[in-house]
């Protein structure tokens, strides 16, 4: 099983658990793609998923996988919410519980990205520091 197929199956299972939300593979791939873009903003070298966008090998570090999956779930839920809108009044199949769950997963994705950022800062070998601009004024 390729890396993309494994992550796609895991994401589909994550979405089936709470609200039986079933999305097509193209939507799951798009959610993984968007999540990978978010994770790549934090990584020094961009990662790839084997099977996604023609990549033959995957280079996503294991420590970044939880953030990727949390972000992918949030993106997939937002995509799934759009397909579950019914009627002209914008009522949602699944009701407020689904909206609250989607919002909670979005918050969890943001927290996972922050946790990844902190991990990368703590494990960095580069010297952390910055310069304050010094302006000397004589009165």
Description:
This protein has 139 residues and is an all-alpha fold. The protein has one domain (3-122). The chain is built from four helices and two strands, in the order αααββα. It has helices spanning 3-19, 25-40, 65-83, 95-123, and strands at residues 85-86, 91-92. It is globular, with a radius of gyration of 19 Å. The relative contact order is 0.14. The mean pLDDT is 81.
Features:
4 helices, two-stranded antiparallel sheet, globular, 139 residues
Bulk shape: globular
Distance between the termini: 71 Å
From N to C, what is the helix and strand string?
A: HHHEEH
Strand order of the largest sheet: 1-2
Tally of DSSP β-strands: 2
Low-pLDDT runs of 5+ residues are: none
Number of helices: 4
The residue-averaged pLDDT reads: 81
Beta-strand fraction estimate: under 5%
- Return the structural class: mainly alpha
